[in-house]
Write a structure and sequence with these properties.
2 domains, 3-stranded antiparallel beta sheet, 21% strand
Length: 154
């Protein structure tokens, strides 16, 4: 797991092009230097210092993911069948983002319970949900968040 995958990257403000907050938990750094290819930063969290690059592609992936999540939620709000929700084009496109979407999905799941289990099974090839948990969204959520922690996503 690289530091870039452990951090949240957000624009510092809409008026500051190329200035980004990079956060890890309650810690953050402000870095500059986003060009069309890479964002370079030297981050200091506690006593350790990391110097690494976050590609523009990583930022674009997060933006695309967030856009798809908003669309999926908006367009499936009245769906009653889980099958309808997971077969929605935006959800399928999130799966199509590949393994890089796993930390983003786990972060969404940590933020709020939702039906990310199908996508996580598809992307990881794993299923930490036991038979007795099926149908209990909170228990399923907990199982996946524990899996994410055990596999270095948190």
């Amino acid at each position: 797991m690289t530091p870039a995958q452990l951090c949240t990257i957000e624009p510092a403000s809409t008026s500051q092009t190329g200035v980004y907050y990079i956060k890890e938990g309650a810690n953050f750094a402000v870095c500059t230097g986003l060009d069309s290819y890479a964002f370079w930063g030297s981050l200091q969290f506690g006593s350790s210092q990391w110097a690494y690059s976050v590609t523009a592609t990583d930022v674009q992936l997060k933006q695309r993911f967030n856009s798809l999540v908003k669309r999926w939620k908006r367009e499936t709000i009245h769906f009653s069948l889980i099958e309808q929700m997971v077969l929605h084009p935006a959800y399928q496109e999130i799966i199509g983002l590949g393994k890089k979407a796993i930390p983003l999905i786990l972060k969404q799941l940590k933020k709020e319970p939702n039906f990310w289990f199908w996508a996580l099974r598809s992307l990881t090839g794993k299923d930490p949900v036991t038979k007795d948990m099926r149908g209990d969204v909170m228990a399923m959520r907990k199982a996946w968040l524990n899996w994410g922690k055990d596999n270095g996503y948190f």
